[in-house]
Design a protein that fits this description.
The chain is α/β, with parallel strands linked by helices. Helix content is 26%, strand content 22%.
Amino acid sequence: MPSKLLIAAADAAFGARKASTFGIEATPSVDGRAVLARVRKQRDRFVAETLKSIEKLPAGICVKQRARFSDATTLALEDGRKVSAKAIVIATGSRPSVPKEFEKLGDIVLTNETIFELRPLPRSIAVVGAGPLGLELAQAMARLGVETVMFDQGDRIAALRDAEVARSLRMVLGKEFPIHLGVKLEVEKNGDGARLSWSGASSGTASFERVLVAAGRPPTLDDLNLAAAGLETSDKGIPKFDPSTLQCGDAPIFLAGDADAQRPVLHEASSEGAIAGQNAASFPKVRKAKRAVPLSIMFTDPPLAVVGATPSDAMVVGSASYDDQGRARVRRETKGWSGFMPARTLA
């Protein structure tokens, strides 16, 4: 939610800049402190509303403690108590990942959780990670007047499988801030900022006031003592589970939301909460749920939507450009590309 609030402010500034195209003169003056203060205020209001629903639970139902598994049906709390249950749902969410080489930069490094605590906007920022969240925040920063440069060791923006859509998106966003893909980074402190050197598909050195690391959000599972629950896990430490029931093996344990690292988007987390909760409540009776068609949206301009299966060599793929689309020309938004697959595959 905070990122969407920042994007809204950035879009307002960008809209004022392009107003002259329609015969309207407007020059934005960005007050970074005011922008970020509003983001924090609205974020805190949303959080407070959510907490109110938890406070309505009957006394003794909500237990606020750190917990670890003692066995498959028992949790050990940090105050020494133990809680046993017929079934348990793991919905611990995810956390920002900061690679070790960036830890030496200290508070120069920002994540999607700490960037909103800034008071003035930085003069310059390096964004590491060309995934959806990194791209959203990079474009917002650039539109708010921050000198922004993006880096990623991968060679495809937003991890897109469709080459034409990826090429078009990179071209459009690259007009607002430089994007260096396929590069390896070396970082070091440089006074009150950081110096980044990159090599690979491109090379160079530049200094930045801040570095935003958007290198993924792994599930928060490390401190749960999953071994005590007897769960089989992947090489990344995530319990193996059935996507249609969210049950971990045949254990009375279920995963939901970002904790399973399957579909890390808000509407999917909500759906998984319902599936896992219902199956945990009715355990040992477990029902398979029909999952929704995969859908993810990135709130850049132009926005990116990915619906359904990713393309493969066995699929027929069509495409269309927005360069000469009528409504796009009216709104001065002749940028973007659609890739789509008919509901059939090559014989």
